[in-house]
Design brief:
Belongs to the carnitine/choline acetyltransferase family. The chain is an alpha+beta fold. It contains 19 helices and 23 strands.
Length: 674
């Protein structure tokens, strides 16, 4: 699974094999006077993390207070407020980050400006931030949402919204309308399979399914090895086949299952039954962003947009897009029950049939039409039933990120996109929640397809138990728009601008299966640091210079925490890159420089997670200065510096091994699926 977004001059996509464990990038925390401090201890003779007795005691206290099965928001009040960093420390760290980027003269100028700022208006702005931190849940998150997201006048497409892929090379079903069905089919975005290879794949996949997924028949290491070998060999044979055209088929079974999973997760969120995430199964993190994840829409304004969120009593339907037509589909029956998967499958099929019938005309059936923009605003989410199959990963990413300029409803919090070959993905609006939050929900939905038998051997969805008594269901209604000539001109103008903007994007997703996190860890280097330093090396080889680099980090250890910036271009990483390019040092010397750069990067990442980063602090100081009418040349120059590289952390595993009640370790260790 991959989540990506494009926000700067150079867009970087990371698609690496391997999955991370919760809290892999952060060490244990000691607690002093209600705040988190870094408490990582590393043995000198090996790369092993120890937990201090204070951490253990605090962890037991958290477990006792939160209960055996804590509710979603049960730890919110126990979270500390994010501290305001000391202004001298922020300025010192800022100057350190600018050293590899500036000439000697430029650096002297920045140093003088920083000193003048610290001796003039800096302390006054700092005192106001201290004051806000005492009464506000978070001293910067509300300003970040308002000024960075809602007041941004850049198009949401490719600039703010992000996308997410599903399983890279595996889909649980490719059940099609035309009746061509298969179960647990491996799908390459480049190829189709011959029948004999597909037969081999089905046999091996069935063995894998029964051996790995069935919790009633545990798999021994020897059986797992045999299953993995057969599975791998069949996959290699399939990938060696020549390209073939993928037939134009539509997958409604997977759409029904995935949408039903998301609806079930939303119900858990509403009931606060979704368990809160704990780093290392001990440290709680903020779960506030889950509240607005669904049933939220961004309403455009002239100077600032507005986020509207609807509760479950108001948001009782979804919008389905097909062939340029929009349909309203209720998600509850007359007994106030969520629609079953089989009912959703049938209703999606009805929508496809109706849309394909009327795609070239505007014929309407008055009994099934619904007029008015007010219908679409409080919807739960939008579902896109596409009729186009992406040829490769890069095209799939583009279709999810900006599509054809007509399909996605980018003001809606979540768009779920389904392709004819069974693949799917997301497009998510960014202002209401950050990517790890939606990534958690998406990972949960994808995991349920693996650990639960949700499809029959025919590829159709598994029917509900006989004890389930469905109620009456409302038929989907096509939405008809009242478009004037003036509005049509504006739509065409916006579409042309959107297409021009999207055409300016170069998005390439590369397959990387040579190695994963395990190989990097054996070298005693943080995988995240390894990737970030690799990006610095690649950029330097390409341009001959270093650039200001943005890596997103979470500050959810604190109330209403969102993100912080890790400035991954450091003096240590620059020293390694120069040595690597010069080819004058031995491998041992290069490895030592790489490890030093990795340790430095880990320090920056932990500081960011602990609220000791610099960029949100500088941003908050800038907002206060503007609010008071102060002009600061120093803050202006710092805020104007461009982020040439915008990157993200490595993929992280957020679903626990015992959630749901099944051990997923064998599945995680499958070499072709991790």
């Amino acid at each position: 699974m991959f989540i990506g977004s494009c926000q700067t001059e150079l867009r970087v996509c990371q698609c690496l094999s391997g999955s991370a464990l919760p809290g892999e990038l952060s060490g244990p925390r000691d607690v002093f006077t209600g705040s988190y401090q870094a408490g990582l201890k590393v043995r000198k003779d090996e790369n092993v993390r120890e937990v201090s007795w204070k951490n253990k005691l605090w962890g037991l206290t958290v477990k006792f207070v939160s209960g055996y099965q804590p509710s979603l928001y049960s730890c919110q009040r126990s979270l500390p407020r994010m501290p305001v960093p000391a202004i001298d420390e922020t300025l010192s760290k800022l100057l350190d980050s600018l050293k590899p980027l500036c000439s000697e003269e430029e650096f002297k100028d920045y140093s003088k400006q920083a000193q003048d700022f610290e001796c003039s208006i800096g302390p006054r702005l700092q005192r106001l931030l201290y004051l806000k931190s005492w009464w506000a849940p978070n001293y910067v998150s509300d300003w970040w949402e308002k000024y960075v997201y809602l007041m941004s006048r850049c198009p949401l497409v490719i600039n703010s919204n992000y996308y997410a892929l599903d399983h890279y090379i595996w889909t649980p079903t490719s059940r099609q309308v035309s009746g061509h069905t298969s179960h647990l089919q491996l799908v390459s975005p480049h190829r189709n399979f011959h029948m004999h290879t597909l037969f081999t794949l089905l046999i091996s996949s069935t063995l894998w399914w029964k051996g790995i997924v069935s919790w009633n028949q545990p798999t021994t290491p020897q059986q797992l090895k045999q299953i993995t070998y057969l599975y791998s060999k069949a996959l290699q044979d399939a990938l060696a086949l020549p390209n073939k055209t993928i037939p134009d088929l539509y997958c409604v079974s997977r759409a029904a299952n995935v949408v039903h999973s998301i609806l079930s997760i939303k119900r858990q969120i509403d009931r606060e039954e979704l368990q809160p995430l704990l780093l290392r199964n001990t440290i709680p993190i903020c779960m506030a962003q889950y509240e607005r994840l669904f049933s939220t829409v961004r309403v455009p304004g002239e100077e600032i947009d507005e986020l509207l969120h609807f509760d479950s009593q108001e948001s009782r339907h979804i919008v389905v897009w097909r062939q340029g037509l929009f349909y309203q589909l209720g998600i509850y029956d007359d007994k106030n029950q969520l629609l079953s998967v089989t009912v959703l499958e049938k209703l999606f099929q009805d929508i496809i049939d109706d849309a394909d019938k009327h795609k070239d005309s505007m014929q309407t059936n008055p009994s099934h039409n619904y007029h008015g923009i007010c219908v679409t605003v409080p919807v739960f989410l939008q579902v896109v039933l596409s009729d186009k199959v992406p040829e490769n990963l890069s095209e799939k990413g583009k279709m999810l990120l900006h599509s054809d300029g007509r399909t996605l409803w980018c003001d809606k919090s979540v768009n779920v996109f389904f392709f004819p070959d069974g693949q799917c993905g997301l497009n998510v609006e960014h202002s209401m929640a950050d990517a790890p939050v939606m990534g958690h929900v998406w990972e949960y939905a994808m995991t349920m397809e693996v650990i639960e038998r949700r499809y029959l051997d025919s590829g159709q969805v598994m029917p509900p138990p006989k004890s389930f008594k469905p109620g009456n269901v409302t038929h989907p209604r096509r939405i008809i728009w009242d478009i004037t000539d003036s509005l049509e001109k504006q739509i065409n103008k916006a579409y042309a601008f959107n297409q021009k903007n999207n055409d300016d994007l170069d998005l390439v997703i590369r397959e990387h299966t040579k190695f994963g996190k395990g190989v990097i860890k054996k070298a005693k280097i943080s995988p995240d640091a390894f990737i970030q330093i690799s990006l610095q090396l690649a950029y330097y080889r390409h341009t001959g210079r270093f650039c200001q680099t943005y890596e997103a980090s979470a500050t959810r250890l604190y109330q209403n925490g969102r993100t912080e910036t890790v400035r991954s271009c450091t003096e240590e990483s620059s020293a390694f890159v120069r040595a690597m390019v010069s080819s004058k040092m031995s491998k041992e010397e290069l490895l030592q420089l790489l490890r030093v750069a990795g340790i430095r990067h880990q320090k920056l990442y932990r500081d960011a997670m602990n609220g000791l980063g610099i960029d949100r602090h500088l941003f908050a100081l800038f907002v206060v200065s503007k609010g008071l009418g102060y002009e600061s040349q120093f803050l202006e120059s710092v805020m104007r510096r461009p982020w040439t590289l915008s990157t993200s952390q490595q993929p992280q595993q957020q679903i626990q091994a015992n959630t749901p009640d099944i051990n997923l370790e064998p599945f995680r260790k499958m070499p072709l699926l991790t």
